[in-house]
Amino acid sequence: MTPPGRFTAEEMLAPARTPGEVWSRTVVGEWVQAGTRHSLERFTFRGPEGGGTTVRVGIFAGIHGDEPAGVAAAARLLPRLAANPAPVRGYELAVYPLCNPTGLAAGTRHAASGRDLNREFWLGSREPEVLLLEHEIRAGRFDGIIALHADDETPGLYAFALGAQVTQHVVEPALRAAEQILPRNRHPMIDNFTAENGLIRKGYPGMLCAPPEQSPRPFEIVFETPALADFESQVEANLIFLRTALEQFLQLQAVGQDL
Ligand SMILES: [Zn+2]
User: Fold this and answer.
1) Using 50, 70 and 90 to split pLDDT, how confident is the model at 88?
2) Which residues, other chains included, contact 225 with Cβ-Cβ below 8 Å and sequence gap of 6+?
3) What band does 163 get if pLDDT is binned at 50, 70 and 90?
């Protein structure tokens, strides 16, 4: 079990904040809450040239402050990819490793405002984190959005995924790969949704997703690790899931271009 507040944001984001690296860091916005200044960071990673159009994927973690494994994984993803960039050929990744810094600091799901930020998107929210992220998501026009979460009620891994092709060709292999680290939740009901082999084929209102007007829709995936499992195993499961999903999506696109 991971006690809340076991790691500070500074410690968890350190792998991403290494100076002089091949990716770039941007502070996309700052706000003050209860006298303390907070900021939202984006790390942009360009994979090797792929020869086709650049595939833009947004990776979001820590929107719930008590789910630190995704934060650590998103930060570690950058040096991991820099060392072995083959899986992200043709990609531009926008990584937001900590979407709810006040929640992480307090070890709470909700932000300091008391709001569950993952129920606020595209509904006229006034939460600073949501406003900044909505702007980023709209401007980014992502081809894919992956959000990393953890659930303390699941005994295993599962995912929410929109888009039939993505479900079959991207999420299923990514879950299978992550299963090397932690078991999959194959229960027919997960989090009050109908599930099949750890896959839920729908979302819910207010979740972090593409803006309602974006067309065509990007692929949208929410990956959940069991929050009570060993912390390092959750981080590793996230990293394997991300790498496999990105590899698979590229293959899916290559096949699509051949048709
Ligand atoms: Zn969550």
Assistant:
1) very high
2) 69, 70, 148, 149, 150, 151, 157, 182, 234, 237, 238
3) confident
* Average pLDDT of the residues in 198-212: 94
* DSSP H or E segment with residue 104: helix 101-106
How far is the C-alpha of 128 from the C-alpha of 166, rounded, in Å? 31
Three-state DSSP at 161 gives strand
| Residue 3 forms part of a structural domain | no
Continuous segment of H or E residues that includes residue 250: helix 231-258
The alpha carbon of 148 and the centre of ligand 1 are apart by a number of angstroms equal to: 7
CATH value at residue 170: 3.40.630.10
* Host domain of residue 213: 9-254
For tokens 């006690």, what's the residue?
3
Cα–ligand 1 centroid distance for 243 (angstroms):
20
- Distance from the alpha carbon of residue 191 to the mean position of ligand 1, in angstroms: 11
The SS3 call for residue 73 is helix
Q: Span 206-235, mean pLDDT?
A: 96
Q: First-to-last CA distance in the chain?
A: 47
Q: If DSSP codes are grouped into helix, strand and coil, which group holds residue 204?
A: coil
| Cα-to-centroid distance, 255 and ligand 1 (Å) | 33
